[in-house]
Amino acid sequence: MHFGPDLLVLGILFVIAYVLGRLGKAIGLPAIPIYMVVGLLASPNFHLFPLDFIHTDYIELIAVFGLIMLLFSLGLEFDQDEFFANAGKLIISGGSYIAINMIAGFAFGFLVGWGTREALVIAGITATSSSAIVTKLLIELNRLANRETPMILGVTVVEDIFIAIYLAIVSVVLSGETAIWPVIGKLGIAFLFLVVMFSVARFGGKWVSRLFRTKDDELFTILFFGLAIAFGGIGEILGVTDAIGAFLIGLVLGATRYRNKIEHIAIPMRDVFGAFFFLNFGLGLDPSQFPEVIWPVIGAVAMTMLLNVGAGQFVAKLNGLGVQAGINATVILQNRGEFALILATLALAAGLDPRIQAFAGLYVLIMAVAGPILAANSEKIGGALLGTKKKRLAAAAQQAKRERDPMLLEEIALVEAATATLSPGENSGTEEYVDRVVEQANSQSDAEHRRDRDRDRNSDAARGTNGEY
């Protein structure tokens, strides 16, 4: 085989992805929609560039590696100690968020009218956040120290567990099995696999750590990558998908003392192979199907944003946080990404309605672009809705007034300090002077306050006259 033309095409696409990625980063966009757009531009259904692949099978195989590494990293980053330490609170918060979105998404899937199995897939596509985009936004927006951040991360942790269980159920449903006992048998195998792997992750970390006793980084990398691929295969053979197998072995390796080292090596691998996955998904998109799914996509976007407003405030209230924290949580958690595309890929492989792929692709493109933009401006949105900006300006003005005449304040402090040791009735002249100074300061503060209030009223009246309201 001669791979020269295909390698040239891939190289060009990655350079284009780099250029667009730099431009996207400048306005706060994540990489996922950019990789999808690059794949779409290079697809045989989109004739903008004269690019074509002679061999596509190996591209799909590399994309499978990307899928496996995405889910492997998700399992690796799962914080078991955090989850079990706050299990009750996290389950209530995350479970409430997922339930609100899942029920509405399932109902929406039936309204679309593509079929029952398609409705189940649509519910999953619209119900869960993108852990990659959520984490990236929290870091880039410097919100790791915010009060709502532990709540947001807690919701994503519960979503990770939900994804594992949901994929196990969906894999059985997508298999097309209709007889009751085979379905029960497949579900039983899937859940047994989940229980065994979760148990090993929880209690067998020390034993698994012994496998990684090597100082050779090359052998270390080969071992964990081999395990990720192997358990992806085991998951596929057991009927729970390669994605869930990779997630569970990542969960197990995340419980070892080598977690940080594995994560340090795995993240660049995830980014490269993940780029192949999103690029390959874009290659499979057919723009001619977009007009057919545009209204369902618009409906799904509107539903997701509206539901997340309510779900974000509800979860914030459960955690004793305010409205602004709820707004911050809403715009962060509404981002959709890799899991929606994984579900669409599984649905397409199972022979479901091909419009699912176009629906998921266009939906993720819109949500992954709008989400970060809204997240970057959530404080401004909250300020506009709650009037917190005016309150902050008023507080700053009051602080400025207090600092406007430091000489007078210093004079008061010095005189009070000088008279602190005087006995009652002693040096009454000094006390009278202190009283005059304090009264003068208070009168000056009150006069300034009245002047500022009158100026604000005149300014508001002028804006009303000019038609700004």
Supply the number of structural domains. 2
| Order of H and E elements | HHHHHHHHHHHHHHHHHHHHH
Q: Poorly predicted ranges (pLDDT <50, ≥5 residues)?
A: 462-469
Which whole number gives the mean pLDDT? 79
Shape: globular
Under the CATH scheme, which class of the largest domain?
A: Mainly Alpha
**Cα distance, first to last residue?**
69 Å
Most strands sheet: none
What is the CATH T-level topology of the largest domain?
Answer: Na+/H+ antiporter like fold
**Radius of gyration of CA atoms, rounded to a whole number:** 29 Å
Walkthrough of the structure:
The chain has 469 residues and is mostly helical. It folds into two domains: 54-386, Up-down Bundle (Na+/H+ antiporter like fold); 389-465. It is 80% helix and 0% strand. It has 21 helices and no strands. The protein has helices at 4-26, 31-42, 57-77, 80-85, 87-112, 116-127, 131-140, 149-174, 180-203, 205-209, 217-238, 241-253, 259-283, 290-318, 323-333, 338-349, 355-376, 378-386, 388-404, 406-418, 428-465. The model is unreliable at 462-469 (pLDDT under 50).
